[in-house]
Amino acid sequence: MSNLRPLEEKYDMSGARLALTLCVTKAREGSEEDLDALEHMFQQLRFKSTVKRDPTAQQFQEELEKFQQVIDSWEEPISCAFVVLMAHGKEGLLKGEDGEMVKLENLFEALNNKNCQALRAKPKVYIIQACRGEQRDSGEIVGGDEIVMVTKDSPQTIPTYTDALHVYSTVEGYISYRHDQKGSCFIQTLVDVFTKRKGHILELLTEVTRQMAEAELDQGGEPRKVNPEIQSTLRKRLYLQ
Questions:
Q1: What residue stretches are annotated with the Caspase family p10 domain (predicted)?
Q2: Is 0.85 topped by the overall pTM?
Q3: What is the CATH number of the domain that holds 127?
């Protein structure tokens, strides 16, 4: 008997869907537009959503730990969790409302397969809208047209860090752009694609990347390009619609 599973295996999305958004709005004009767009998206995708504005660095950590406790004590099965983190930042760090920094890796730890049992083997999606450095991309000119191996003496196990998806608004080392009135290109594009298109989440994120790569951003009269970065340890296809 083959141990190969079908390539189309999907996550079971019949249970509860929970979302947490932590957003520093101070000195980040346009943030409210992003929060409004995300609220619309989570409503359409049937997520129970919680928003925390202007967390300090310590509160970023505390709110993630509270979220983990809420998930583990939820009465019905959980299918999926989204965490949206929006703040000023640099590579691997977010700046709280108090100006202090918190490590992204510490925030990710709260919901991994070791620390959050209710999300063990369930998808955990992180959306990070923050700078990752000071570099700016002016663009370049282009031309031309799961295997299960379990013996009767060996219980099935799962790695600690699977079933996670980290979606950054920009690539390592680069600035992330946000319009004072319209919100961020990343959040607005992501919400538009997630609410209007169907497909598994990596297909949708490819479309987000395509649209952002084609967009022309202006910073002080200078043309800029930006694209998200997607890091995935998902084991199955994740459909939100």
A1: 154-241
A2: yes
A3: 3.40.50.1460
